[in-house]
User: Fold this.
Amino acid sequence: MKKSLLALAAMGAFASVAQAQSSVTVYGVIDEGYVGSNVRQGLGGAANTTAGTMKGTKGGFTQSVQSTSRLGLRGSEDLGGGSSAFFTLEMAVTPDSGSTTSLVSTTRQAFVGLKQNGIGAVALGTQNTVIYDAVLATDPTGVNNMMGTLITTSGTNVAIANAYTSGLSSNNSYNTRTANALTFKSDRFAGFNARAMVVANSTTTSQTNSGGAGAGVGGQANVTGASLGIDYTWQKLNLTANYQTFKAASNANAISTPITLFGATASGTSGSTNAAGTNVQDDGQYYAANYDFGILKGYYQYLNRKATSVSAPTYYSKFTAQQIGVRSYITPTIEAWAAGSMGKFQNIATYAAVPYTPPQQNLVAMQVGANYWLSKRTNLYAIYGQAASSNVALTSGANMSSTNGNNYAVGVRHTF
Assistant:
């Protein structure tokens, strides 16, 4: 009996020590608001016809306006000697789904890793891309889900896809997250720190029946990628430079197989933020600078993304954008921002015997917004954004079209 009591006491002491050396935190965001939108599209024909000017409006209460609602767990364990283990499991939350079974929709992040103080951290799993981490740290709008910025193209809440025609729907300006990723994030040395990512997910199959490129059987299906980002901080100045390249190739992809961007479920549409691409070489660059002037912080951003068909390299789409902005606390509880951007988008040509290269669309956007902080975790917000595209023609001889849209929102966000 005494031995049993001693064993229980020892186990209890060990559990107490283990608990003291490890921690798990539940965190999340709930964001609800009212969003309205207006879209007007000129299709190059007579007014009030299917080939003429079209317009529409929408409004209603919805979720994830300023920030995507989410629920997550993160934890760490002290391994001694300056080493630690850590994990994150984060899911998007859809409180307006109307069903408890679909309250949690998709995995945002899911990774585990090891950290050594003085060197950095290594992690494996579904993680933010190098460019997305950089945008989160250097964007004056706070990477919200409203229209009005070409760095993070959005419109998921208000069905205004026409405002970003031909592929510029939610977050298609860069890939936000990817699965099957190994990352390294260094500690800061002399103002510098580095972030790197390698993606690998390949399959090789054999077959007995005849086939070949485009036959849909056999061969390889490869998803690979590599990324590198360098950040530099000197007093109130922050600089970042980032490059990432991802490739999805399969023997089943014929020349006519449309490309699908990484982070999208179909060509030119929004979808799972960690979905792999299809038949695409997906390359992106991001450079940014911001400086804290005291009364406000100034921002500059440049983004470039090119998606090339692996099976037909003469077909590609290309997007470039640059943005300037400011962000400031007007009072201790009122925070405001403003941003303006311009860019160009060239859609992938329609597959045909003779490749057609469509003209580059001209894009402009602007956004203003404000937060009223009720506490460190709760704020009210008001946001207005608008965007326009012109010089749009997807097929040879088609009438040029243009789109102008805006949306506005008020709501409340709580973080925990």
Observations:
- The chain has one domain: 24-415.
- Residues 309 and 315 are 6 Å apart (CA to CA).
- The first strand starts at residue 22 and ends at 42.
